Amino acid sequence: MLYCVTGCAGFIGSHMVDCLLEQGHDVIGIDNFSTGLHPFLDHAKQSPRFKLITGDLQDPSVATKAIQHVDAVFHFAANADVRWGTHYPHKDLEQNTIVTFNVLEAMRANQIQKIAFASTGSIYGEATIFPTPEHAPFPIQTSLYGASKLAAEGFIQAYCEGFGCQAYIFRFVSILGERYTHGHVFDFYKQLLQHPEQLQILGNGKQRKSYLYVKDCIDAILFAMKHATEKVNIFNLGTDEYCQVDDSINWICHYLNRIPERIYTGGERGWIGDNPFIFLDCSKIRKLGWKPTLSIQQGVVQTIDFLKHNTWIVEQR
Amino acid sequence: MLYCVTGCAGFIGSHMVDCLLEQGHDVIGIDNFSTGLHPFLDHAKQSPRFKLITGDLQDPSVATKAIQHVDAVFHFAANADVRWGTHYPHKDLEQNTIVTFNVLEAMRANQIQKIAFASTGSIYGEATIFPTPEHAPFPIQTSLYGASKLAAEGFIQAYCEGFGCQAYIFRFVSILGERYTHGHVFDFYKQLLQHPEQLQILGNGKQRKSYLYVKDCIDAILFAMKHATEKVNIFNLGTDEYCQVDDSINWICHYLNRIPERIYTGGERGWIGDNPFIFLDCSKIRKLGWKPTLSIQQGVVQTIDFLKHNTWIVEQR
Q1: Nearest CA of chain B to the CA of A240: how many Å?
Q2: What is the CATH number of domain B177-210+241-277+293-316?
Q3: The complex's ipTM?
Q4: pTM of the predicted model, to two decimals?
Q5: Which of A29, A124, B173, B296 could join B210 via S-S bond, C-beta 3.0 to 4.6 A?
């Protein structure tokens, strides 16, 4: 098969590229390298079955040229940082909503029928049901990031109805593991590198969050695409647990053998739009037969271990 | 108070302008006249308290200049036709989602805190609960129109959380009454003008739809804004009933004293993305104390009566 992976040099996209190549497929990767990193494609670039297109999908003609003759599109290109929405609202609209629309139009122009989309548990806003299922009550958005991904989901669904496409929409918890380049584990590790004696924590440390190991995430996506057959297939992706920010800090400090003074900024939210409790009901994909291999704690440790052996990532950001 | 009404020359927008002026407020109206009609502003233009800006809100600088010093924005500018989404997908993205984003950015730049937004019952897609409440299970979009309005809703909600705005989001059923310029009553009337002996009906005529009289709609919006105080206030707006397309045809034919041959295109959907059953649970706004004055049947008759006395509208479209 020939697949297209947008955001191919990103954290999750680059893992998908590696996995598809390993399974013997051909892959066209697209990235504008706004946050993607060339070293994440070191392995892929050695394969003759990988073709890299450097371009920005905000330009519809780039999308139309790149997304041709493929069996499916893995649309992972995005502004992935939920935290800075109120600083750069345009980014979420342009890089998440409009880029997805451009991908859909390119698929329509080139008669591509299948899309997998990296959505987010953030679209549940501040959920009222925990664990939160895919059919939770119609949520209210609390972040620009969530709003922009919800918008993208909606257009994908409408294209399925209007133009006969098939979609696989995955609402992720936060993803951890090799090539992780932003988020709380990254922030904590960076702080402990710079000043091991002190750790500043956004919020009160009691926020309850969920995480999934990146290779489990990739595995789940491919599993769902193999076994689910609806026109629009929506799956929460996570483990069946959550942890407190403080738990995560304990695991990180224990692994690094540090005992920093903890300074909390306070409040139940770390930043505007921070969600104090994220815990997704993943029974839908579990019932299909998939299960994660790593717990949240194992994922955190794996991530810290990766950062420790790849401090260049921490230093350049 | 000074209010801004976007889409001020449209069906619903022009009624809001008239109502606000009648209540003694000052009004800045914006329209690009892509579908809005100057005659709908004949009354407003006689008032020294009305200022008309002709401009396209797809240009952010138009939005920023127009939306200044106002107490609230009534954002009604939109591509309002659910039926042609698959023909012009860009229109829904640009005129509904991006224009709403531009309005929000203009509000942020000019420190405007309150917005009323014309959303749609179409965002419930093919609902599974009837009547459908605001907190229905997270829907799947079935039309570009619904998707683009859902996207707009999401951004409005995120701006409320991120920038402290207050929003009133109204999910309308189809609106009927004076100045109605598109939709099934319009189509049927136009056909009966052109060939009174024959009526072509999209679908099987059994589609169950809900309608609300435009002046009841305006009344409901202002009522909700007076009595609801949440950060994000979402209300379904409709009557507590639905009708079949065939009922509506009966009322129209009876009023016009016509007995056309009915030719059905067949199928439970009139077009791609047509929703065979729309029936919203409006108990939330009813509990606040509002109620409609006209039934669906009365609204249909009022609309036909308006068209009969304003055939120029039918002739120009």
Answers
A1: 21
A2: 3.90.25.10
A3: 0.95
A4: 0.96
A5: B173
